[in-house]
Predict the structure.
Amino acid sequence: MTFILELEHVVKRFGGLVATNDMTFAVYKGESLGLIGPNGAGKTTIFSLIMGEHKVDSGSIRLHGEELTGLPTHKRIRRGIARTYQVPRPFADMDVLANIEVGLMPDSLIEMLVSPFDHAEGRAIARSVGLAEADLHRDPAELSMGDLRKLELARTLATRPEVMLLDEVFAGLTSGEIAQISGLLKEKRQDGLTYVIVSHDLRSLEPLIDRAIAMTQGTFVCAGSYQEVMNDKAVRMAYLGH
Amino acid sequence: MTSTINWRHLLLWAVFLGGLALMPQFVTRGTLRTFIFANYLAIFAMSWDVLSGRTGYVSFGHPFLIGIGAYTSAILSYRFHVPVGWSIPIAVATTMIGGTLFFLPALRIRGSYFALVTLAFMELMYQLVQVIRPDLTGGTRGISGVQTLLRGAVNNYYLSLGLMGVIAILLWSMMRTRLGTALSAIGMNEEAVEGSGLNTTKLKLFAFMVGAAVAGIGGAFYVHYLGSIAPRALFDVNFLFTIIVAALLGGASTIIGPMLGAFFLTFLLEYLRPLLPGAERYFIYGLIALLLYMYEPRGLYELFHRGRARIFGGRA
Ligand SMILES: Nc1ncnc2c1ncn2[C@@H]1O[C@H](COP(=O)(O)OP(=O)(O)OP(=O)(O)O)[C@@H](O)[C@H]1O
Ligand SMILES: [Mg+2]
């Protein structure tokens, strides 16, 4: 078993607030890891640090053993990691297919000028996340929350990540939509995708993850199987207050 | 955003450009001069749209770029007798360097801060032009007697129309590529573009370079049409707003929108002139722009589209 993503002593402060307080953990290749913690625990911040959207104050973040800190976000994505956003914010004036195709673009001005749009690939990715053909030429504003989450997944998958950071992919979805996205995530795992998933919906999370890490107030609490973590005294305190 | 060619669209373009090409047959020389101004304004509005309309980095200092183009070519040709065949390309290159200066604040700031910094660029240029080397720039009075490229309204009309047409076609082709899509995406959600693995700094720099090049071409040709240049008229807030309002009024993020907006505004200002000789005219057009913006924020282009759809059917 090798680690694909490692965080070591990562610290991030926002003014006086320590949003990430000396976090150390690692993700195995092919693993599905749940990151849980109450509101404001600092889960989203960790994703932003891994992606380079926020700069770490100290500590190390490595992908495939190589240091990521210092790299701009787009370069991290080219190294095989990507995230989804808790609040999907698609490109509002582009149709669904065009949104996905932004994720397929090469990062070279010349190639962007001369290479044609890859509609076939865009369609295939849309299909793979369960977006209907009829939705492809809709504006994102016309989509349901479930379809918006699928679009967010599709645009992210288009960058061909090996590791995906999924932030609250179930929030605001019907149980049918949750089942659909869960099914999709299981499938992607069989294709070799590694992911870290954040969700407040613990019941939906449980069957998806191999292992869980709990945190509160920017600090690591414990790690283990889902059951072990949920039975942990400190976790029960943080979550349920008893 | 489809990438297949829309034939009805092309037909509209052909009618639009064809109509403009026949214009000298029907109108007076005076009206033709107004059209020449409209063509240049359209070039400036398209330039503004590439830089600001697409990426969302709203420039309040566009005359800064236009001024670099105009002054460079005017100084080279008038003071140093450089042939215009050289002075214009050099002016365009210099404007692109100016575009890089513009780009530096865009690395750090966005929104109204960026707009303010670019406004400061324009003001600074206005002040500097008058005090630094007035022997070259002509100081407050500017330069007159700059070599003109062609004689007569008809010739100059065709030159300006040709320039506008070529620039429009080039920009239109560029915007249809993946690069054009990515530039528009930056205006909608820059993080998500970066989060799609694209270097947004590089993309923005490209947009700024293209916008600056177009502003430089427009500025240089315009000065060789007028034969003179004066800082007061160029680095002027009214001029700046005319450019921005033309782009927004016509429909930002389209090619034909800024052109329609430029024609509409130019003629509006022209017809208001006898009624309101002073700066009040700008108040009226501001009001019209505001009303249109409230009623149809996508601009004239969208109104035009809907009107057409109502008459011929099809997409609204
Ligand atoms: N850009 C920022 N500037 C200042 N404070 C921030 C910023 N981003 C997050 N925070 C603060 O950092 C803490 C952690 O926030 P974060 O969004 O990472 O929590 P979270 O675990 O994702 O919460 P939730 O479950 O509500 O999404 C919060 O107290 C939040 O207010
Ligand atoms: Mg969060």
